Amino acid sequence: MSSNQEIAYSPPLPSFKTKNIPFLKYPLKPLSRAPETVVLSQTSAISTERGPGQPLSHHLGSPTLKDREETSTGTTLWLSSQLLTLYLADVYNPKTASKRRRKLRAIELGSGVGLTALVLASLGIDIVATDLPVVISNVLQKTIDSNIDQLRTIWERNSFGLKTDGLGKIDVKVLDWTKSSSDWRWDIPGWITPPGDHNTETNSVSDCLHIQPPFDLLITSDTLYEQTLTSPLLHTLRDLSILSKSNAGHTSKSKSPFPLILLSLERRDSDLIDRGLEKAKQLGFECVMVKKGKIIKLMKKAGMLQKRRSIEEEEEQEQDEIAEDKSGGDLMDWDGVEIWRLQLKPDIT
What we know:
By secondary structure, the protein is α/β, with parallel strands linked by helices.
């Protein structure tokens, strides 16, 4: 990012108000209203070609990596990832961190613009941030690289006396859900799935990192939106859970030996979402939705909601530029966003 490129500040807002901002200055800790911010790289060029929920029309059968790259929606900060970061910041807050016996490890499927990875790292959790090559090269790696020094500064200033070994590490890698888990590699910089004919050269802060299973936490947001990707996504989560079986029991009160999965979604197509959750149950997952009241409480604490305005005030607000909007959003703007807790049943082998 060059010094002459404009950076727009935004409080937590719905994505339709911010998706065209190439460099979005966003609060790292909205729950505490702390002044620390990170800068998220965005581009609407990829995500506006096809919005979530619109069908793949140019191929039959399982989507290829090229198909997924062409239809990616991961280059914009969506609603579901914003709410997921609130929930993560609440569950893995500094008070709980001080009681950890060791540093936790997480993996994210569909990291997009990188907000969730930055938040987890700021909470002292190591994170593998995965996505498609086009998303990594356009936004994700840029976001991580440009904010890592800021994260270190914030951590040193607000370390809270944690017993763990400091700021979480972020390892950015390509993970293709359509590849068999038998093909996964954890020792190749920048890749989990074989690169094929893709360029494997990387030049980033995560080159020397190899955060590997077992994982304590699996997270994903706005990834349940396309029918042909539902099964690959869920099978990838299942395989990662089984790989992490011996490490479970640190992030959930459940008796399951498998790690907790947090799935955040926007219910644009209810039938697709319901079919996806039913498929998850068939694969052995227990699925429990986080109560709406809990999410609304966190949103209010973060300033994401505003009081109802009069018609005159609404009309006046519509005339304001997005960069000047500090008022938060209406609850209807966030309607349909849900967070689900998934976990394999104890008897799964």
